[in-house]
Write a structure and sequence with these properties.
By secondary structure, this protein is α/β, with parallel strands linked by helices. It has a single domain (32-272), classed as Alpha/Beta hydrolase fold, catalytic domain (Rossmann fold, 3-Layer(aba) Sandwich). Helices cover 42% and strands 16% of the residues. The protein contains eleven helices and eight strands. An eight-stranded mixed β-sheet has the order 1-2-4-3-5-6-7-8, sandwiched between helices. Strand 1 and strand 2 (61-67) form a beta hairpin. Helix 5 (154-165) packs parallel to helix 8 (206-213) and helix 8 (206-213) runs parallel beside helix 9. This is Serine aminopeptidase S33 domain-containing protein.
Amino acid sequence: MGRRIAVTVAAVLVAALVLVGGLWLVQRELVYVPSRGPVPPAASVLAEAQDVTLTTADGLALGAWFVPARGQRRDVTVLDANGNAGDRTDRSSLAAALSGRGLDVLLFDYRGFGGNPGSPSEEGLALDARAAHEHLVRDRGVAPARLLYLGESMGSAVVARLAAETSGAPVAGMVLRSPFVDLPSIGERVYPFLPVRALLADRFPVTELVAKARVPTTVVLGEGDRTIPPAQSRAVAAAAGGEVVAVPGADHNDAVLAHGPAVVGAVVALADRL
């Protein structure tokens, strides 16, 4: 009897190890949800928008759109980092709204997203954001002090790291929409039965990064967000010493959070402080 129990326990342990090991191997396929593309030409979606190619430090060519300001220019440029789904076409309404308020906008897709080569990872997305920053500063002559970062959900982690890494030439500020504390804290919600914190290779420690970046920060959150708990977004704002704009009843993927007046207004308010 004891031998039978021991064999059963051993079999269960082996099965658990195989499951955990398999999840570790495919974890990035579970974390990232890219739109494979292709993406149409910029001008076919937004009038006067320009197709741009960004070159990363590891040699990838990434597609991007530069959307020039319309009307009275504010002489401020917004670098937008997407969330963990879709591609830059899904941000066209956001870019149009910001452009209409006199702001230049750069939309770009990460590696593996929007028809771009490569596979997404935390380090890879950091390289992609640096390429976007270099394009604006080096190729378009945008002064860092006239540059704002806008991060959407996971993109908040991307721009927070970029701000921390470029603190020697700080940007004007950041707007973080629905940021999380770190990726493991979200993974634990989705997979409460797994040792997510021990397994995850990509961490995205947003609170740590915003505290290090020390730039003016506004956090926009939805009070009805079922993907990123509003408490986590508030914790990010507290770590940054920033402001909170809460949208009553808004869920994570609602249009009001994607390109509504709360997000656009938060960006414009930061721009007007310059």
